Every structure is written in C-alpha cells, then in structure tokens.
Amino acid sequence: MTSDGHTGLIYFIKVVELRNFSKAGRALGKSPSTVHRVCTGIEKQLGHELFTSKRPTLELTEFGKTYYRYCCTVLDLLNEFEAEIKSTDLGFIPIGYSYPASWQSISRFFSYMKALNSGFTSKVTTGDPQALAVKLRDGRIDFAILPHNISSPDIKLIKIFSHCIWGCVLPEGIPTAQTSAVTAHDIDGMPVLLPSVSVVTEVFKRWIGPDVSPSRINYFDCTQTMAGMVSEGYGVGFAPVAEKKFIESMGFKMLNLFPGIETTLFVFSRPREKLRPVSQMLYDIISSDETQMF
Fold this sequence. Notes:
The chain has helices spanning 7-18, 21-28, 32-46, 62-84, 103-114, 129-138, 198-208, 223-231, 244-249, 277-288; strands at 92-97, 121-126, 143-146, 156-164, 166-171, 181-182, 191-195, 216-220, 236-240, 252-257, 262-269. By secondary structure, the protein is an alpha/beta fold. The radius of gyration is 21 Å and the shape is flat.
C-alpha cells in the first residue's frame, strides 16, 4: 500500500539513519540537493528546524527527534496494513479520506476489505473534501471518507457512521492530567489549541456550550506543532485519539472527553457500475451492512 505525500517522510528518515544528505541521496537514488530541498520544505511547512548546523554529520534538533518518532510511528502503521492486505491480481482499490477521519477510521474501513477473503492492491490518499469529491467524480479514487455530506448525482452515499475520535492533550504535571476524563468545565478560562479545520471548531464550540469560555483559541496545522505549543504552555490541545500512542510517547497525557464528542463521517463511492471489479465487491459488502458504526 502506498500513499501520496510520504516521499518527504521517507527521505527524512533516510537522512536521520545515515546522518548525511549525500549518503541519503545515494541510498535513495536521488541527488543530495533533492534530498536537502525536500527536508528544507518539511521544515518550512512545520515551522521548525529538524537538524542542527553541524557538518558533515547531521544531528537532530529536539523538535527533529520528536518528528522522527512520529515518522517512524506512521511507517509502522503502514507496514501493519501492508502485512494484513497482500497485493494480488484481484484488483486495485483507491481510497481517500479527509480530516478529521484518521487511521482509526481507515482501519475500521479495512475491516470491510478483510471480508473479501482475497488479496488486492490498495492506495490510501488524504486531501480536503472538495478535492476528494473531484477525484471521486473523475475516477481517481473509488471511495472517500469525508466529514460532511455531498449532494451529487455522480457520487453515492453508502455509509454513515459515528464514533468519538477526540481527546485532550495535556502536560503530565497539571492537576487535570490526573483525572480520568476531561469535561468542558475543566478547560474553562484556559487557552485551547484546535486543528485549523472549520468543522472541528464548530464541533468543539458545541461541546463546550455557552457557559464555558476558553481564554483564547489557537490553531495548529499538524500534531507535531500542537505538541510543541502544549509543551511551551500555549494551551491544552485537542486531537484524534488515534494519535494517543504517538502523543504519549512525547511525555504528554491524552484523556478522553466527557461527554465524548461524537463525530459523524460519511463514506462515498462512485456509482457501482463505474467501480473497478474489486471495488464493486467492497461496495456490496459495505452497503449490505445495516450497522451505523464500523
């Protein structure tokens, strides 16, 4: 299984392993300048330096060490999926998902794939809902897991499911981190960090209600950035519980919310007659399941 956007992750890990851009370039079959440019692009996107300026042997910054652990976690997840889903000649299933759908949601989607009792090739990509809807219409993906409904004659809604995917990220040392769950009143008057996605802000404001007022709301574009902001005292963070293992590996505490924030996700496909053969089989399995949760 492959995924668009993982090239930078692979390049970065190889640089860390070999501690040198030239050696990493030779190992990857790329020029050192290409590998350096990719890693520099990651730094610009994250807003943090990954390496110190020591030459010729590169050393990771503290943020770089945290990001490296995250990258290794992502690759471990990919390897787990690859071990479960073998590639054969049966067919090819391209799938897309959009935040806040997460690996937790994707793994549940794969439970339907296992019901095929056969191997196949799959490809998982991420993107914003509008871009994935375009990919559905033009056939670049067969299925999409999105955070809201889409009305289109070229796209079919085949499944709606709900589950509580959000947790609160706190420093280990504060009193709230010693409780079993976080309530809206626990964060009253505290600064809060939210993913920079409008649907998440809407859900969060419904959860806290009119009587709770965070001192401010800051936004982040990736979990690594949120973790850094929590460690610097900029607030408590909210992130999918699927990222709990990674977050707690950095020394933070992730607690469930009470009551939980139930998130509704929608599974769409192209019309059945336009699907690839193995995707038609998967379509039939999903549409015949009457449960509302994976």
